[in-house]
Amino acid sequence: MLHRVMMLTAGLLGAALLALAEGVAQDKPGALWTPQVAIRGQDAVKERKPAPRRNITGMWNALRLGNQSGGVQLKPNNGRPENALPYTPYGLQLYRSHKPLEGADSVSPAFNNDPRTRCEPLGFPRWNHYDLGVQIFQDEYKIMMAYNYDSRWRVIWTDGRSLPTLVDGGVEADGEYRDPRWFGYSVGRWIDDYNLEVVTVGIMSDDRAWLDNTGRPISEQARITERFRRIDSETMEWSETIDDPKIYTRPWETMRLPMTLQDPRIDQITRYCSPTEIDRYNKAFGDAASGK
Amino acid sequence: MNKRLMIVVGVAVALSTGVPLRAHHSGSTLFDETTTTLKGVVKDWLWSNPHCLLTIEAPGADGQAAQWVIELQAPNSIYPGGYRRTTFKPGDAVSVTVHPVKNGRPYGRIVSSVLADGRELGDGMLRMPATAPAAP
Question: Which residues pair with B99 in a beta bridge?
């Protein structure tokens, strides 16, 4: 009975969301600038067609899970034993030096040291865990992912080039040393017509970026494997596994996001980081609310 | 879709139980679980990142008039729930329910609001059911 009620509630909410999305667009006939948000969940999908072959283009959103504000989706940082991470001694020490705004060890805004609040780039793979709403484009050589937060974009090469090799302080690609990058170096390979595997190495060092909003660390030694599984015309599953021997004693899975295709015409409101606006927020609210 | 239906849908979505979508910082660290309803006059409405801020002059639980600063989420998060840059203007008579901060100062996080024109809005956050059916 409870399950039926929940199913009914889910269905009604999904229908309401779709009605809202369609209604906004229909309020002004011929208006192409609305709506400004992607709000279609998987429950609102009316018709599913077979998945296109080797194609993940489109505007995608994971409405049910948002920005994983309490930690990565499959391991929320809520203090429960089943969500404890396999830290190395160095990884645990690094985690304890972080003062996040979210999660089991969160602090008030005035006392945080999250690089995000200084408008530092989030870094990869934290972009995958933050304020999701991603537009994907692809051609015969590459896939480009445009992330909503701070309007950042990332390239995944699919032209058969080899994955760079991790070396001290960066990577080696075709015999040439290259610096670490905020998005690292990503190479994708179609396992079959509906499954794309992407491996990324060469991300920034562990003093520059965090793994998630709760202060979990990630290092330049990480190898991040993503799987994009195209389920049908409207949906896709996006999963991610972290292998970082400097920070974690074994690989672990961070997320398995149900993505829904959105209206490609949506002119989405961007969330951005402005030092001026952060400063104004802290003066008007954050400092006093924190008791500073 | 007419405006009335949009408001009903927006409020239903905003008030429904589920998974909050976006947040700049954790609520449990800063805010009390209790709620306070403030009836007052808008002094300022800041549509900004990382949080929108509503400033109103209203008596608190002790009856003393104070200037309250109320936090909402960022524009892209509260837009689906019906909030806009033009939602509030100085001089509007409003009623706002908040989770006050734990340190007793006149600051809080929004739970819901009743606007000058009588419209009701939630906290602005779009929520989906936590136990919705999985994709096929």
Answer: B109
